[in-house]
Write a structure and sequence with these properties.
Helix 9 links the parallel strand 7 and strand 8. The protein is α/β, with parallel strands linked by helices and 334 residues long. It folds into 2 domains: 168 residues, Rossmann fold (3-Layer(aba) Sandwich); 145 residues, 3-Layer(aba) Sandwich (Rossmann fold), CATH 3.40.50.10750. The strands form 2 sheets. Strands 8-7-9-6-5-10 form a 6-stranded mixed β-sheet, with helices on both faces. A 5-stranded parallel β-sheet has the order 3-2-1-4-11, with helices on both faces.
């Protein structure tokens, strides 16, 4: 069974409520209808009701059984504005500005999650990554013990004996340009949870560097060494090894040679890259040269799932991300 089929099966077994704040956008309307018809999630379109219905008519899409929430006229508006004011008053926001901000569909949808009236959010077909993440950081915040929001890709490499039969988690490939050692450790914890929840695999983490176990000396190596130490101290339950070069991390014979005595060298299925340049280049190289399937990126580290789309996304992309967000919300490990 293909991984996306597994996600669909998980989503149908544990239906979650995902809000789509770009409800007036044609691809989003089409995707909402598909998700609803295929029973992949419960969805709510956020936006002006008349505009959404006009888009649906123009695209020949039936949204009659999909809830529509218009922030400007919603009975929830004042409750959400009061909540947002309480969250942000220490930052100097006024009640008037809080009310104005909450009318923004992304903020409104994020507050639905905060109020336990939805389980997750998908945006980005029209909004930037920053506009999707900012409300989540201000309202939902990061999960306990996690200091940073990061991203990960599921990489599926055909005819590959490494990782989990060719499956890996790569992080962070899309969000943090130069994480500190503490942030790298938090990214590793989030990535391990992503491996469990989305891929049903026990994470074996490698903290990637250009050095393996002291083979090189540099401040860039020091950061990865410190991150590995922090992980082992704070999360002894995790199987983590570092600092590791890529070959030592995923090739058993090389791992034994470069890191003798390590039980997990050469066995990694979660690769945590030292910075965004390495992570972004790494996933794209594997995707293009190994003809791997790159699924993502997914945001991780938040209290509740919020995911960002590419503005060039297709209808199928939106359906898939909504499905995966639903699986994240369910925390399904089977």
């Amino acid at each position: 069974m293909e991984l996306l089929d597994i996600f669909r099966d998980k989503a149908r077994k544990n239906l979650k409520h995902i809000v789509l704040p770009e409800g007036e956008e044609p691809r989003t309307v089409k995707a909402a209808a598909i998700v609803t018809d295929q029973k992949l999630a419960k969805v709510t379109l956020i936006g002006n009701r008349d505009k959404i219905l006009k888009v649906a008519q123009d695209e020949n899409v039936n949204v009659g059984n999909i809830p529509i929430e218009d922030p400007a006229t919603s009975p929830r508006l004042q409750k959400y504005a009061d909540r947002f004011f309480d969250l942000r008053k220490s930052k100097g926001i006024s009640k008037e500005d809080a009310l104005k901000t909450v009318k923004d569909p992304v903020y409104f949808g994020t507050l639905m999650i905060d109020a336990n009236e939805a389980d997750g959010l998908v945006s980005g077909a029209e909004h930037s990554t920053a506009d999707t993440i900012r409300p989540a950081l201000q309202i939902i915040k990061t999960a306990p013990g996690i200091s940073i929001v990061s991203s990960s890709f599921i990489m599926i490499v055909p005819d590959c004996q490494y990782g989990d039969k060719g499956m890996f988690i790569f992080a962070d490939c899309a969000v943090n340009p130069n994480p500190t050692a503490e942030e790298l450790a938090a990214i590793a914890v989030s990535s391990a949870e992503t491996a469990r929840v989305l891929c049903s695999m026990e994470p074996r983490i490698a903290m990637i560097s250009f050095s393996t176990k002291g083979s090189a000396k540099h401040e860039l190596v020091d950061k990865v060494v410190k991150a590995t130490m922090l992980l082992k101290e704070k999360h002894p339950e995790l199987d983590v090894e570092g600092e590791m070069q890529i070959d030592a991390a995923i090739v058993p014979s090389v791992g034994k040679k470069k890191a003798p005595g390590s039980k997990s060298a050469g066995q990694a299925n979660v690769l945590v890259f030292p910075d965004l340049q390495a992570g972004n280049a790494g996933y794209k190289l594997v995707e293009r040269l190994a003809r791997a399937q790159a699924i993502g990126p997914f945001l991780q580290g938040l209290n509740k799932p919020v995911n960002d789309l590419s503005r060039g996304c297709s209808v199928d992309d939106i359906v898939n991300v909504v499905t995966i967000t639903s699986v994240q919300a369910g925390g399904a490990r089977k």
